[in-house]
Amino acid sequence: MRNSGNLLLASLSESDAAALRPHLKSVHLDHERVLFEAGGKVSDIYFPTGAIVSLVAGLSSGELIEAAMVGKDGVVGTFAALGGNVPINQAIVQLAGPALTCKISELRSAVLQSQSLLSTLFRHEQTVYAQASQSAACMAAHQVEARLCRWLLRSRDLAGSDSLQFTQEFLAEMLGVKRTSVTLHARTLQQAGMIKYSRGHIQIIDVEALQETVCECYDTVKSYYQALLGPQSA
Asked: Cα Rg for the chain, rounded, in angstroms?
């Protein structure tokens, strides 16, 4: 599935791709659409081709904090096809865009017939887990400005664009900080000429400067996906 727009699908063998192709349907995922709830039922699998999905953890206070971000380099909900019980995270669309979707039962049927497909999906789930672990370490050890740069660069990679549609409220929620903190650090990045921010829209101006400011976690997570997908993910 070389032209599917999803790098994980593109990495599959021709036989595995052929097994999935008849079941995939194109959909548009709207911003802040919830694909499944933590502890809920998962009925559909999503391979983003332009959309970006956040896997978030909810707190009793009602706050949501992002654990991992999945876009064109991955798939959302595949654990359910691999025999997982219930999701531990909520999946919410961070950036609206297209995706390919299929039913859990259809993916499970394909997995039961292919050891190579099973292996690829297991390695993907390990990569998402590694990303979530890195995010937890990042939140504990790194400053908000460096974390904001990481989030913007990862979003840019997955969107394939320097223009990102995000509100400060949404950014604050995903980073687990107060909106005033995002406002302060976004202003600092803007004054440094790295980004241009207007209500609900971020334009990345200086990628190299962001890469110099970002914490090590950006490159670490990127290396996980390069190991999963090969050179095409670079």
From this structure: 17
Q: Which residues contact 85 (CB under 8 A, 6 or more apart)?
A: none
Amino acid of residue 131: Q
Residue in 228, 234, 190, 184 with CA at minimum distance from that of residue 9:
228
- pLDDT tens per residue across span 48-75: 999 999 999 988 888 888 999 999 999 9
Which residues does 173 contact at the CB level (< 8 Å), separation at least 6?
63, 64, 65, 66
What angle in degrees, to the nearest 10, is found between the helix axes of 144-159 and 217-229?
A: 30
Pairing of strands 201-204, 195-198: antiparallel
pLDDT in tens, 135-175: 999 999 999 999 999 999 999 999 999 999 988 888 888 88
